[in-house]
Amino acid sequence: MFYCGECGYKSIKWVGKCPLCQGWETFIRESDSPQKEIGSKSPPCLLRDVEKKGIKRISTGLDELNRILGGGLVEGEIILVGGPPGVGKSTLLLDVARRLTTKGKTLYVSAEESPRQIAIRAQRLGEKTFENVYIAGEDNAENVFEYIKQENFKFVIIDSIQVVHISSCEGAKGSVSQIRGCADYFTRIAKAMDVIIFLVGHVTKDGVIAGPKLLEHIVDSVLYFEGESLSNYRILRSIKNRFGPTGDIAVFEMKSSGLVEVKKITDIFLPHKDESLPGSCVICAIEGLRPILIELQSLVSKASFGTVRRRSLGFDFNRFSLLVAIIEKRIKISLSSQDIFLSVAGGLKINDPAADLGAVMAIISSFKDKSNPQSMVSIGEVGLAGEIRRVNNINLRLKEVERGNFEFCIIPKSNLKEVDKRFKFKIRGFSSLKDVINEVFK
C-alpha cells in the first residue's frame, strides 16, 4: 500500500498527484516492519465478566484543571493540549509536572527545546520546586518507551507530538503518518502500563490541532487554550472528555511566575457591574456545567457610508444577524441604516442560546441610548416569531444570579413553573420579546 504523506489518502499503487489534497509526489510506501508489542493481548470475554474497578482520580494540584477534567486524572488517560504559539501550553504543563511529583515519578519529554531551555523556564517559575521532575531531550518515541519501562514513570508529558517520530512509520516529523503512528504508540503505552500521558499539539492558522483529525479521536481528553496575545487571561476549554463533562472552561492569568488560576471570574466578565451604561446587558450563560455571569456590550450608530457594518466579537455572527432581523421585523425598529457592533466582555466566546435575549436588550439599549436597569440579568432564547423560548438549567443559572447580588432577572415564562421558591430577588417571566421591551424601556 501507498499513502499520501500530507493527508493520509491510501492507494494500492504509487500515484504522482494525490486525488484528495492535490499534492504532487507525496505518496510513500507503507513500511512492512512490525511495531513492537507493548502489552499482552487478552481474548474476548463477556462484558459482565470484566473486572469493574471504580475510577480513582488523581489531583493535578490545580483545582480549575481538576474540574474541567471531571475531578482529576485517571490512570491510563492520555490528554491532548492544543493552542496557538506562546499561549502557555508548556508553562502550564511544566507547572503540572512539578505538582505531580508528589503522586509519582514524572518525566517531561522536550522534543522541541533543549533541557537547558526548560531549566531556564523552570528558574523563572521557581527552580527549587522542580527538583524532582525528570527532563529528557528526546524525539524518538521508542526511546521514550524504554525510559518509562526502566524508571517506572507514572506521568509523562510529550512536548510536542508534531516533532516526535517513530521508526515503524515513514515520513518526516509532523507528517500525517508520523503523528498518527506516534499518537497510537503513546496511547497503547498509556493503556497497557496505566501511565498518564499529556501530549502538546500545535494548531493550524484555522485554530485546529495540526495533523489528522484521527489524533483527537485516539486520545481520551482534548483541551484547547484560548487567549488574545494582548491579554493576560487564558481560557482552557474541554472539547472532549471520556471521563467527565465537555465544554467546561477554566480561566488562568499569565504572570511572571507562570499561569495562575482565576477562581473569581466575575471581575473579568463583569467589568462594569456597578455601573449602568447604554448598550450593556448582563446574561447568565452555561459553559459545560458552569454558569457564568457575562456582560454583553453593543454599539449602534448611524452609518457614515452607504454600506452598513455589522460585527460581532465572541458571539456567533449568524445568530447575531438573525437577532437583528427579528428586531426589525417583530419590534418594528429600523436598523437598516445603522452600524451595529456586539461584543462579549472579557474575550470569552459563547454559544449558549440563552444569551439571545441579552444580545437583543443590549442592541436596543444602545439604539435608544437608554440604560438597562443596573441590577438586571436577562436569560432567554429568542425565536423567529419574537417569542422567548424555554432554556435549560434555569435554577442553576438563577443561583449564580443570586450569588452575584443582582436584584432583578428576566426569564422565559415557560420556565417560571420550574423556579425554586427560595430565591429572594425579583424574577419575572415573559413569553414575548415585545412585552420585555415595553416593560424595560417604557
Q: What report would you give on this structure?
A:
The structure is a single chain. With 442 residues, the protein is of the alpha/beta class. The protein folds into three domains: 1-30, no CATH class; 68-167 and 175-261, P-loop containing nucleotide triphosphate hydrolases (Rossmann fold, 3-Layer(aba) Sandwich); 268-440, Ribosomal Protein S5, domain 2 (2-Layer Sandwich), CATH 3.30.230. The protein is built from eleven helices and 23 strands. The protein has helices at 63-68, 89-100, 115-126, 141-151, 176-193, 214-218, 266-269, 317-330, 356-368, 394-403, 433-440, and strands spanning 2-4, 10-11, 27-29, 57-58, 73-74, 78-82, 106-110, 133-136, 155-159, 196-201, 221-226, 233-241, 249-255, 258-261, 280-287, 290-302, 310-313, 338-344, 376-378, 381-382, 388-389, 408-412, 426-430. β11 and β12 (233-241) form a beta hairpin. The longest helix has 18 residues, at 176-193. It is globular, with a radius of gyration of 26 Å. The model has no long low-confidence stretch (mean pLDDT 87).
